[in-house]
Amino acid sequence: LPGSKSISNRTLLLAALAEGTTRVGGLLDSDDTRVMLDALRQLGVALSPGAAAGEWSVTGAPEGFPAKEASIFLGNAGTAFRSLTAVLALGDGRYRLHGVPRMHERPIGDLVDALRQAGARIAYDGNDGFPPLAISPREGGAGATVRVRGEVSSQYLTGLLLALGATGGGVRVEVVGELVSRPY
User: Fold this and answer.
1) 135 close to 89: Cβ distance less than 8 angstroms
2) Which of 76, 167, 154, 77 has its CA nearest to residue 111?
């Protein structure tokens, strides 16, 4: 992998959602990736470091994470917070996601609004539109189309695509406005 926390965290989450064991090489060693690795461990994903720096084996949980309840501290790792919010919100567990005080000042309302269109049950544990979040099992009867604002963060769209792909699809995603950070 290139030295990017965004790509590293997306890769870890994809591996955690995939069937079988994925070997990852070149994973960036950063606070954000360490936070994601810790969160995945809390969710029951089997992780083991490889022989070389940046190598990991990740055994996926394609049927859902083994841990159905957890309080997950994500520090100030926005890439981990946004993508995990999406994946956990479209799952079947109860989770609390929180971080450092600065994380609780970073908006997440647009992602929460989009996830709610897909049947997610998310409550704000503090100020509306900001973490911390309380996530409950997804409701049935989600809409066939989910709209997400593209000009806010590419991480919102990435989280939605990862989460919807892991839940079997069947939902159309529409990006409203210009998509920022298109390469990610």
Assistant:
1) yes
2) 154
